[in-house]
Specification:
The protein is of the alpha/beta class. The protein has helices spanning 51-58, 81-91, 107-113, 123-135, 151-163, 181-196, 208-211, and strands at 10-19, 25-35, 40-44, 66-71, 74-75, 92-96, 169-173, 201-205, 216-221, 224-228. The chain is built from 7 helices and 10 strands. A hairpin with a 5-residue loop joins strand 1 (10-19) and strand 2 (25-35). The structure holds adenosine-5'-diphosphate. Adenosine-5'-diphosphate is lined by residues 19, 21, 25, 27, 45, 47-53.
């Protein structure tokens, strides 16, 4: 007998988001999207296309107007805010454009603090954090303050912090937006390396060059998603 396939990490069916107002704004039209374990997906679109709306829904930071969303098999609609926060903490790692590191904490402490609500206290957290930081090439800067690091190094700390709890999905919102193009490419190399090691990744970006690095690409325009055929070089390219 073969074991049942695991559920997709992200499974959106008919998910729509309309912001109330006069007139109301439908930022995301009914959307189906499935992301499996091991996928590396980029969502690319211009400003105002609905990227933040989608990210907020995927990251359980907002609720859809209708449709269903399962995260690793759990239907999130029925959860209380408290359970959603717990699920988010355990299952989702976030990487943002602006790094969001604590300035007065060392690199190691920044990563260790992310485990406070997931793992116990003390030494295991330090060991896990040091391991995550070695994984992103920062094993030699554990005791540095973020202000002593370059932008690319700060983003590596943020990535270590996001993966230290082994989330089901790494959600990256414009992860290279504050970096020059060479540093951005190195950060994308790191994401590709983590993906090869099994981390499931969604990168949201306005930058087609960043999106190009992901094996799976979805374009979002006016709140509508369309997937580019795997292997094609550009949206709308030959199949
Ligand atoms: P992006 O991240 O691609 O720039 P957004 O998801 O922020 O796009 O926005 C998509 C659309 O939804 C835009 O037309 C924006 O003005 C609108 N929008 C976003 N947030 C809100 C909100 N809280 N209330 C009303 N309209 C919103």
């Amino acid at each position: 007998m073969t074991a049942a396939a695991p559920p997709p990490v992200l499974d959106l069916r008919g998910v729509r988001k309309t912001y109330p107002g006069s007139p109301p704004v439908t930022a995301l039209h009914p959307t189906d999207l499935r992301v499996k374990t091991g996928d590396f997906l980029a969502v690319v679109g211009p400003s105002g296309s609905g990227k933040s709306t989608l990210l907020n829904l995927l990251g359980l930071l907002d609720r859809p107007t209708d449709g269903s969303y399962r995260l690793s098999g759990t239907d999130v609609a029925s959860l209380t805010e408290r359970d959603r926060a717990a699920l988010r903490g355990r299952r989702v790692g976030f990487v943002f454009q602006a790094f969001h590191l604590l300035p007065h904490r060392t690199v190691l402490e920044n990563v260790a603090l992310a485990q406070l609500y997931v793992t116990g206290r003390g030494e295991p957290r330090r060991a896990n954090s040091a391991r995550a930081l070695r994984r992103v090439g920062l094993g030699h800067r554990l005791d540095a303050l973020p202000s002593r690091l370059s932008g690319g190094e700060r983003q590596r700390v943020a990535i270590a912090r996001a993966v230290v709890n082994t989330p089901d999905i790494l959600l990256c919102d414009e992860p290279t937006g504050n970096l020059d193009s060479a540093t951005a490419a190195a950060v994308m190399d790191l994401l590709a390396e983590l993906n090869r090691a099994g981390v499931t990744i969604v990168v949201i970006t306005h930058d087609p060059a960043v999106a190009q690095r992901a094996p799976r690409r979805v374009t979002i325009l006016d709140g509508r998603l369309s997937e580019t055929a795997p292997g094609s070089r550009a949206a709308g390219g030959p199949r």
